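Write out the 3D structure for:
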Amino acid sequence: MSLYYVVSKTTVTSENDCQPVILDDEVLELNHGESKFPKNIPLMSSKEKLKCRKVKAVLRYHQPNPRKDIEGYAHHMLFSFYPFRNEEHLKSPPFTGTYFAKLQEPGVIEVINRNKAVMEPYSEMVDQALSNLSSAVTNPDAFSQQENDEVQADIANVAGDLLEDESLSDDAVILDDTPPLPAYTAPVVMPDDELNSKIRSLNKNQRKLFNKVQSWAKRSIKNKSVSSPSPIDPLHIFFDR
């Protein structure tokens, strides 16, 4: 199936702007040599023929979820990787049984796994890669989440340093009358969802003021990170009652 396709006699002359343009086989096979298989195979059931590809096609098919549709999953595994002459023989008992019962017969799973390893040699690697990707992606906005984590870590480190400076042992001697440092309260970083929700709730004038302050703050932070900062005008906001 990956090497041959049915030659269609109908040709589409007009292009639909709503659909992607499908590349023909000539474009895909420019940098590939001739195949060792027959170029054309006539079909016995019709006047059409199969044409050999120079580049193997990627076969895509639906695989039922074994937790939700165990019978459909068993049928898929037997139909794809277990040899048969009559599809009804894939049931146990034939014609009246179920595919799942056939899958549980001795030696059936071994044959399926052996044939699957030949047809899909990299399936385990692909499943492992997808599993690693799904476990790594915990936040759609990973960059913002990383910034929040770094800010919270810095705040925790500063708070810990201040608490260590303030804490004195029982036998410590105070040499002067310097008042103790005030207790440091670490600010709470607002989650992204809550912050975006509050921004969306602003009216037109409030949103205009917010954008002004945000733009000034971004310019100030960016100006501090350059080697030769340029002077920035102070921000003045006047409220009219």
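Residues 6 and 50 are 5 Å apart (CA to CA).
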